[in-house]
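Appendix B, record 7
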Amino acid sequence: MERVNSLNSEIIPKGSIVERICRFLRARHVEFYLVGGYVRDQLLGRPSHDADFVVAGEALRLARKVADRFGGHFFPLDKERDTGRAILRDEEGEPFFVDFARLRGEDIVADLALRDFTIDAIALDLSDPVGPRLIDPYDGCDDLRAGLVRAVSEEAFRDDPLRTLRAVRLAAELGMSIEPHTEALLREAAPLIGRVSAERVRDELSKIVAQPGAADHLRYLDQLGLLPLLIPEVEPMKGLEQPPPHHLDVFEHSLETVRWLEALVDTLQGKSKKAKGALALVPERLGPFAPHLTAHLARPTSGGRTRLTMLKLAAFLHDVGKPATRNLDEEGRIHFFGHEGKGAAMAAAILRRLRFSAGEVRLVRTIIAHHMRPMQMARQEAITKRATYRFFRDTGEAGVDTLLVCLADHLATWEPDLRVARWRRQIELVASLLKDYYEHRQEIISPPKLLDGRDLMRELGLREGPQIGQLLETVREAQVEGKVRTREEALAFARAILRGGLK
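Structure tokens (predicted):
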């Protein structure tokens, strides 16, 4: 837990966007309070990228004026409740979100009584030019010091069931614990989560998964009874036995895959002091690609989340298709034939239900559909250029993510009986594929086109149809293998294929 700072002049740093907004509001003699996360984070000494103001007056109109004054954008959030947002730029030029809400109740204490947790029910009265006055009717500062997430009232979760997820998210984000009575109230209210819109659930779940220690947070969601309500497809994974070399059931294996994925990423990014055991090979073989991988995982998705967050979700759901594909052979051995295809379809349905973007659904679906391929490729004596091309042809940018899930899956499967030679072969394969992806893209991954469909129809007298696509792909693979290098060679190769029959 981070230390709670004492209230001082720096709680609102001089020259900050918040300090300038406060001066702007004082000049207009507005009664206003700074509340919620910004106050909490300042007391903890944490950076903030948003601020919430409560005002005694027309909040929407004030939000628009602030946006206009500071060159930002205005958005009405809830006209009925008189709530608006100004999106500005902070001192570093980063987006800074400022929300304005009309005071609820007769005074600020009544307003704070309607909030979720004591650590967010702290306000600063900023109307007085003499200095800020802390208002903490529910001893939120004491809970900050103790590292506790405590509900403001017995009705907190029933008033807004999304707070059940928000409690877990705050605990994960701040390194805190949920206070026992609050946890009991949360468990009781968990079934109400079905009343919350999928978009709000998605956003809180994503923020939970984005935190370090995502496997522990997912397990906690399960223990609280929330995970089965959000993703009921994981329930059949619990207790589902797997054949050796697996040593965990499908559910526990999935959590362990998330844990190993984070360990791999932390090792690549140098967050671990010294890589030990199986991870010792990671900086040695994958270290040259660490800057590329770090940038790749930090990139925002079409839904505004990082690829790392979606990668952790893919790792958790990578075996969700196993319960539906479980079967026994004549000798009683367990198999899950086709689980990756079934799991990809199931994961896509889960993410669509939770209103993830189409791009995010496609990313996770691709990772899960192909997560077995690197393992199968590692069994080959040599990895051909054609095999590398086909892997990235089918996975695109998701190929990089797929390789990381494959490594995490391998460790979750084999530990604590890891076979060094097998693990080295797996990581060597990933290093080879990454080298081609980042250093030989023009030659192997996406070579320049020598022909298109019009060329084939004009030069070879072919009609439009699926044969054109098949022929172009065969020529492209020959190009990757170095069999053709020019347009003329590509046409001659295509003619030879047609004479011999397209296979």
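Remarks on this record: Residues 303 and 432 are 31 Å apart (CA to CA). The chain has a mean pLDDT of 93.
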